[in-house]
Request: fold
Amino acid sequence: MRMLISVLTKRSQQAEAPAEEAPSRLTRDEIASLFAAELSY
Reply:
């Protein structure tokens, strides 16, 4: 779970940058599905 949180933190920091600098940023749907997958374990 900590790894997921660190990934989301990094992605959210990237999302604040211009789109050209963060082409792989997560959408809200992707974040929600990651949390759902993590909680299902």
About this structure: The chain has two helices and no strands. The chain has one domain: 1-39. The chain has a mean pLDDT of 70. Helices lie at 2-15, 28-39.
